[in-house]
UniProtKB/TrEMBL annotation:
Protein name: UDP-glucose 6-dehydrogenase
PANTHER family (alphabetical): UDP-GLUCOSE 6-DEHYDROGENASE TUAD
Highest taxon in the source lineage: Bacteria
Gene3D superfamilies the record matches: Cytochrome c1, transmembrane anchor, C-terminal, NAD(P)-binding Rossmann-like Domain
Pathway where it operates: Nucleotide-sugar biosynthesis; UDP-alpha-D-glucuronate biosynthesis; UDP-alpha-D-glucuronate from UDP-alpha-D-glucose: step 1/1
Enzyme Commission code(s) on record: 1.1.1.22
Amino acid sequence: DALIPHLAPGDVVAGKSTVPVGTARRLAERIAGRVPGATLMWNPEFLREGFAVEDTLTPDRFVYGLPAGDAGEAARAALDEVYAAALGTGTARVTTDYETAELVKVSANAFLATKISFINAMAEVCEATGADVTQLADAIGYDDRIGRRFLNAGIGFGGGCLPKDIRAFMARAGELGADQALTFLREVDSINMRRRVRAVDVAREVCGGSLLGRNIAVLGLAFKPESDDVRDSPALSISAQLQLQGARVLATDPYANENSRRRFPELTYVDTWQEAARDADAVMLLTEWKQYRAIDPSELKAIVTTPVIVDGRNCLDPVAWRAAGWRYRGMGRP
């Protein structure tokens, strides 16, 4: 409604947001009713947090949701001009209707969430059998039909997109009478949340059965590296649970300390991993920042009380850490 007074016949509006299917058509009808000749197209963005510039300049594909007829063709031509550089290098372009364009983004996110929860379910099986989920992921990842990306077991996914999108997708499917088609996403969400509980359980186990009074160093709070985003972050959620169950948590993150403090001020935040780990009864690596993956286990061992590390992202070399005298616990790894 705020935009409509600024539109004129011939203008093209490109929608970018992830929205419930059916939104674009309703907006298009509203625009057409008030500014005849103005056109809405739906052009979902596929930007990853931390890679926005790269994904804008070199996207995987473009998706255009267009109305039928001359108006759709004019909108396509207008956006082709905007994306001329990327299209000129061979970037794929898919032209379709509004509903399909709306579904592309949320379907892609649901698929990625499913892939992550699948390997985390396999981590549960590996823990029960003594198998190694990382080697399992490597082996099945060689299959071109599957691929290795998003097969990293650990504490699950978070952030402002995947959790929100799959829940909204399920809700919208229910409104449309297609709820049974997405029943599996409930288990995807359930597996994901279960990983957070499992991480706390592992921390309790390595601390001798109780977290009460234990000093726990947490390395990483953002939901993923190269970001300061802590929305629905597994790392922050786990840290909060450790604190609530009686542990004394010293947490650190290269960029997410301030955002974490605003969301959960009860934790103690420090600037470096050395400060967090000093006199720790256990260290938990919860976000796989490269500087944490590069920590020298011998250097870290010199400042902790007990050399126990929980690798919540399976990003460390267990052989090297055990050789340095550490008790290493991964997620789904022996």
